[in-house]
Each structure stands twice: as structure tokens, then as C-alpha cells.
């Protein structure tokens, strides 16, 4: 079965997803805010690092921007399997999708909790009941950023953004678009993220932010963002 979600072909079956995710896909609310606002963050010809591809819908939208290349990481192997199908169905040759975790510092093992609700899978144990525990080795994010000359990071990693953004150096990155998860780390965690990014030269950018989906940008020069996303 193939749905069209935010203009993206999604060849998935309801048996492969939780009822909550299938309903969100069917009624068009799945990652709707992220899908609209990411176009304020990614510009033509950007080199994009996406952390937390999920089932690949946002990945496909980003990849549809002119001249963009996307390196996408997803920890959950079940999500990666579905995302590969979405990427192939949309004939996207400018996406490199990897099953794994990027983290600051030397490679180390992370415990990852896989859940039936794929969008709730994370390295946070107390986020809810889980079906499987996986051990996933990390790759150094700063080395990856430097190697691939990343311009912008897009991330939805279910709370892991707090430690990552505090610890990583983020060399050369101009913009970071992320979903905040204050239900996991509270307002104190948001302060930690904001202060850590400010120390690296990033400021909260209201031109690409809405609610928990926020853009942090470096530099003071005027920026020309993609004017708007798909009509949905």
C-alpha cells in the first residue's frame, strides 16, 4: 500500500507500524510541523546531516531541495528498513542512509530501546515500555561533520539532543534545526541546550522556529531561506 504524505510516496503497510503512527500518516499529521518548518532551515545546495531519520519522510522532503545531499542516521534498524523503502520509492539518489548513532567524543556503545511506536524508540529507558534492547556503537560526530563539510544539521533524536549539543564542537555548521523534548529534560535541559549552543556562536533564530521545532543559526548576516514548504 502506498500513501502520499506531505507529497512523499510512502509504500508502507499498517501492519508494519503502530496504530498511532499509521493514523498520523493517514490523516497527514505525521511530522507535519517539522515538514513545514525544515524548509526555513535548509537552503539549496546545502550539505545536510540528519540525525533520526525515522521512516524517511522528512529525509525525502529535504532531499527534494535543489542541489542538496543528505547524510541520514537512524539507530533503529526497523525504521531504517522502512526509510530505505521510502527513499527508493521517491527515486532519491542524493541520500546516504546509515543505521547507527553519531555522538561526541570517541566511539562507544549506546544502549538503544526499540519500541513498537518507532518514533518513541530512543536511548532513554524511562520513555516507555520497549520491545527490544540493542547495543549500537557510535561514530564521532565532529569528525563526520568535518569530513563531509556539513552546513546544516536536522535532528529529532528523542531527548539525546541535549547531551550531544552540549558535548559536540560542531565545526563549520551554520544551522541546526531540531525538535526539543522538554518532557524528558524539562526547561533546565532547554537552558542547557541554549547556553551550550550560544557558547559555540549559535543563536535562537525565530525565522525558522515554531514551538518545539527550533532553528539555531550562526552569524549575523541576512539569510535567504526556502520561502515555504509543500502546501499541506
From TrEMBL:
<dbReference type="GO" id="GO:0032259">
    <property type="term" value="P:methylation"/>
</dbReference>
<feature type="domain" description="Methyltransferase FkbM">
    <location>
        <begin position="67"/>
        <end position="202"/>
    </location>
</feature>
<dbReference type="GO" id="GO:0008168">
    <property type="term" value="F:methyltransferase activity"/>
</dbReference>
<keyword id="KW-0808">Transferase</keyword>
<protein>
    <submittedName>
        <fullName>FkbM family methyltransferase</fullName>
    </submittedName>
</protein>
<dbReference type="InterPro" id="IPR029063">
    <property type="entry name" value="SAM-dependent_MTases_sf"/>
</dbReference>
<dbReference type="Pfam" id="PF05050">
    <property type="entry name" value="Methyltransf_21"/>
</dbReference>
<dbReference type="InterPro" id="IPR006342">
    <property type="entry name" value="FkbM_mtfrase"/>
</dbReference>
<keyword id="KW-0489">Methyltransferase</keyword>
